[in-house]
Each structure stands twice: as C-alpha cells, then as structure tokens.
Task: inverse folding
C-alpha cells in the first residue's frame, strides 16, 4: 500500500460526458501528479500541483483540468469525453515539488476510465 | 511524447534465469528510478539512483546510473514467477522540476 488513495477505481461513461477523479496523497506529501496510461502504453505526465498551486503541465488536453485543495487532495476533471480518453489515470504524490528533491513518486492504484 | 527508450519491449524467460533491461535517453537525467507495475495496480518503486555511476541493489534487483547520465540498466537475478509484470524506467531532469519521464516499459513473463 503506497498510501495514495484514488477513487473511483473503475468508471464507465459515455462520450460527451464529464467525470471527476479524486486523489488523496500520502500523509505529509505536498505534491500531487496526474499521469495517463493508455492501453499498452507508458505513463504520460499530465499535470503537477504543489501545495495547492499548479507546478508543471505536460500533455494535458484543454478538456481536462485539475486542482489541489487546501487539504492537499486533488481532483482531475475530464470533460467532453471521447473514446480515446479511455485509459488508466494515476495519481502520484511526493514530499517535495521543487527541483532538487529525490524524485521518488508514490503511485495510487489508478482509476480505470472507459468511455463508450 | 516519451523521451526515454526502454528495451527490450518484452521478455519471455524461464524461472531461474537472469534478466537485463535498459533505458537510454538523448537528455541528461539527474535521477533514475525503476518501477514495477502488476496488472490492476499502480507502479511501485523498486530502486532509485541519484549519482552517475551509482550501482544499487534491492534483493535480487541491481540497477546502475550510467556515467553519461543518459542511461540506466536493471538486472534481475534468478528470476521467479512473481517477477512477472511491467518494468518501467523513469528519469528526472533538473529542468523539469520533480516530475518523472517514463520509458514505455518492459513486459516480463517468467515461465515456471
């Protein structure tokens, strides 16, 4: 158990819909990262938050947005869903978010999104 | 897109054999990490490397941070069936803050 909690574990929805994925980081971790893993693919970085503020952005679509709340949990919002958005979405956390930290990320078990 | 080239893409081995996989990049990384992902689970950190030339072991796993800082390898000795999974390398660059760039993974199958 990594200590990172993601909900829901599975989600099935239709094209055009909107979903929200939730992540609670490890106790004490200030940084939250979102990654997308499509079928048989590696992990694509989407976005990072550090202590409530956006720190870095990767290959995140404009239809997707995220935020980190004062209690440090984070939500990833996916809207106008398309078939190609079907993937595993992972949240990871680390203690620090600035250059020079150890780089060790701890991953949740992921949220599997299926868009029909 | 991916900036780390991980090979091989897949491996099918017999129990007891040793395994080697590697990751290369055109960019310099200041940290290399190796993760294992099992079906339905998130990636789990196996080994972290922080210095060029560093060689670190974790049980039957050994990983090295290349001298050029552009590559890393992972060895698994005397493989067992529970080694099955996807192994990912990941690198952290100074210019990218703390986020990690991942390789595309090596799918390992161990036949008993």
Result:
């Amino acid at each position: 158990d990594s200590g990172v909690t993601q909900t829901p574990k599975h989600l099935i929805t239709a094209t055009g819909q909107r979903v929200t994925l939730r992540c609670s980081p490890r106790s004490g971790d200030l940084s939250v990262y979102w990654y997308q893993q499509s079928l048989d693919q590696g992990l694509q970085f989407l976005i990072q938050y550090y202590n409530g503020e956006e720190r870095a952005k990767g290959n995140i679509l404009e239809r997707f947005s995220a935020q980190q709340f004062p209690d440090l949990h984070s939500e990833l919002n996916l809207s106008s869903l398309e078939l190609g958005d079907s993937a595993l979405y992972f949240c990871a956390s680390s203690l620090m978010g600035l250059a020079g930290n150890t780089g060790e990320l701890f991953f949740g078990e992921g949220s599997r999104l299926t868009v029909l | 897109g991916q900036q780390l080239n991980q090979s091989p893409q897949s491996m099918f081995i017999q129990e007891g054999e040793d395994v080697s996989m590697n990751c290369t990049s055109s960019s310099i990384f200041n940290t290399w990490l190796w993760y294992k992902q099992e079906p339905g689970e998130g990636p789990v950190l196996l080994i972290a490397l922080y210095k060029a030339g560093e060689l670190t072991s974790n049980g039957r796993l050994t990983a090295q941070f290349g001298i050029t800082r552009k590559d890393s390898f992972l060895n698994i000795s005397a493989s067992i069936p529970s080694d099955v999974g996807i192994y990912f390398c990941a690198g952290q660059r100074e210019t990218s803050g703390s986020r990690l760039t991942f390789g595309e993974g090596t799918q390992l199958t161990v036949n008993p």
Summary: The interface with chain A takes residues 1-2, 6, 30-31, 33, 35, 40-45, 48, 50, 88, 90, 92, 94-105 of chain B (CB under 8 Å). Chain B has a mean pLDDT of 92. The longest strand of chain B covers residues 85-92.
